Amino acid sequence: MRILIATVQVPFIRGGAEILAEGLQQALQADGHQAEIVSVPFKWFPPERILDHMLACRLFDLTETSHGTVDRVIGLKFPAYLIPHPNRVLWLLHQHRTAYEFWDHPFADLIHSPHGARIRDAILEADQRLIPESRAVYTISGNVSGRLRKYCGIESTPLYHPPQHADQFFCAGDDDYFYYPSRLGRPKRQDLVLRALIHTRRPVRVHFAGAPDAPAYTDELQALARTLKVHDRVTWLGPVSEEEKRSHYAHCRAVLFPPEDEDYGYVTLEAMLAAKPVLTCQDSGGPLEFVCDGKTGRIVEPTPHALAEAMDALWEQRDTARAWGEAGRERYHKLDIAWPKVIERLLS
Amino acid sequence: MKLNWFSPLPPARTDIAHFTARILPALAARAEITLWTNQGTWDRALERYAPVRSFHHATIAWPEVHRGGLSIYNIGNSGEFHGSIWEVCRQNPGIVILHDLCLQHLFASVYLEQRHKRCEYLAVMQRYYGLQGEKDADDYCDQHLSTEYMGWVYPLTQHALENALGVVVHTQPAADAIRKENRWPLTYAPLPYAAGVRHRASRKVGPPYRLVIFGYLGRNRRLDQILQALAEFPERDAFHLDIYGRIWDPAAVQTRVQELKLNRHVTLHGFVAEEKLDEALDAAHLALNLRFPSVGEASGSQLRAWNHALPSIVSRTGWYATLPEDAVAFANPDQEVAELQEHWRAFLADPAQFAQMGEAGRRILEQQHAPETYVQSLLDFIGTPEHLRLRASARALAERVGTEASTWMSRNSSDDFLRPAAEQIRALAL
After folding, report:
1. Per-position DSSP letters for B275-298, written without gaps between them
2. In chain A, domain spans
3. Class for domain A2-159, per CATH?
4. CB-based contact, B418 to chain A, within 8 Å
5. Given pLDDT bands bounded at 50, 70 and 90, which one contains residue B203?
6. Burial of A168 by CB count in 10 Å (0-12 exposed, 13-18 middle, 19+ buried)?
7. CA spacing 20 to 30 A to A113: which of A2, A97, A261, B337?
8. What's the pLDDT score for residue B430?
9. What are phi and psi of A119, to 5 degrees?
10. Taking the domain A166-335, which CATH number applies?
11. CB A94 within 8 A of CB A148
């Protein structure tokens, strides 16, 4: 089949969405298909520009190229998933979140615009009317499916996919640090981890890896660590290579991943592949679909005290950490998370 | 339904504040209302029905506005009372309740007195009325043209509606004027006024009969003509004219009264408490409610007069011209002196006939102007706010496409080129 993957690209930004699109492309090609990624540049400010982008996407014609018809379009991200095609399938990463669960929320942006309600309504209406145009609607997680049902009344099926280089994760011990690999940003709540550290009774150490969403945010977090007097228990690794990342996973005691309402969360799966327990929170979204509380990690209240207590426990109980990590790796394999299954559903 | 209600509030000396107070009980019974004001003080009794939030248009918290639901903006022709409301309205789309069609005075006040931006005022006038509008605006700024002339020729109504999701007007002439633009969802709802309990008439039988003028008395209330008509009326001793309310130039009016030797016949009361005005209206025999120019606005003063079953002489213009012949007496704007005198003679000959006119007005008030009816009309018009916002988004997109296309498509290009965009705008938003 000749397949186009429709997504958006914020110029100069690369993250999980781009990795997913590339992973899907490679998987399709490995399955014998012709697959290309069509990336639409996206800018969401001022909010009125969002409508421009929606209209632009609706005006694209991806039904054919000069070399023949396009058999299928797989839409991933807003507003690229609005591009029409008679055989369009959605595999939704997420909707435009500040029009939905982040509308009236500390991460909100639309609500701060005088035109916010008008733009939000236009996004909701377009999603409700145009997503069902699809031949089938899949999402990357039960969490994303739940939001789609809650806000738009649209049913969908979650399709889990493996993280990049899934076969290269390994476990190589359990050194004395927790590992938190993720972009540094408010939704990831590195600050919650720092606030938890002041409540730990054990000499817990944390290694943070990842680039900041905004350069100033690193400074903000480091200043917070100093203010809280936990800076000597924290290591800021910054951006790390894939190899370094896997090595940190391999050697850590456990993985911290307490974001707020994560769509999916590669970190959880990567930790499971590295046989590491995961500490996450009750409002963390995607990770909750994989972590079994008390069996492969902990699911705690999103408070510094609760997180500190869980960190102390795993710091102290090295054997438990090992056992939960192994159980996590087993669970991952039982879930049979693999690209061929994803491809089969998307092309069915 | 949740609504933000931007309006002057009592004790602001404008009938639009009273309008809000009049409908608030009925409105709050049907919707969750947040009142927004830039006034330092307001009648605390309003808070029995809705919370009151203060705002400054430059710093208003948009999340608070969005949480309050759809915004309703009461726009009238006073910069003092409506300047800040319009400043919010031009940023946050909402329903505009248009209390005046002629808004030149509002915008002259906003641009020249509040912003001190003559260039912005000239640019707006140029945008709506071309080079002649800009030139006249320039002359107006240099005091070569009057406010009345500018208002009559350049009402700037559309400027107030640029960001409107829909428009509510209180008169049929106003509805006709807005409908011609074919741009906004529109509804006409008669100005609401809760008919009060009928007071025992305290009107004296026999002369001198009390004539009354009340409300905000701008130049268009025809005081000069009324005073002239009274001065030249042979039976003037049979009348006494009471003038209540803020006068645009009290000294000039007082001087005119003296020049015409009407000191015994005219009393200027100034602004008085509501209760005192009600007593005066109960005691009055005939209201003089002239407006010229008038471009269609409904008169809260007229409804108030009817509430007291008070017969009225009104100008045959705008909304007033649509009133039933049996409920008011008319004076044509170019023949006011003679026609006022003619009506006064008729009154002296048969006061009971005028009293019946007042009763007819009272019936109209009861049947057509109930606040509950108004609120129902307003809520029916709004329907679901989402649809109004989607329509506005579709229009914004269409204008954006049109603007872009105009940069590279000739005027003679076929509409077919734009059809796909039109269809997709429809798919997205309508």
Report:
1. HHHHHHHHH-SEEEE--SS--S--
2. 2-159, 166-335
3. alpha beta
4. no
5. confident
6. exposed
7. A261
8. 55
9. -70, -40
10. 3.40.50.2000
11. no
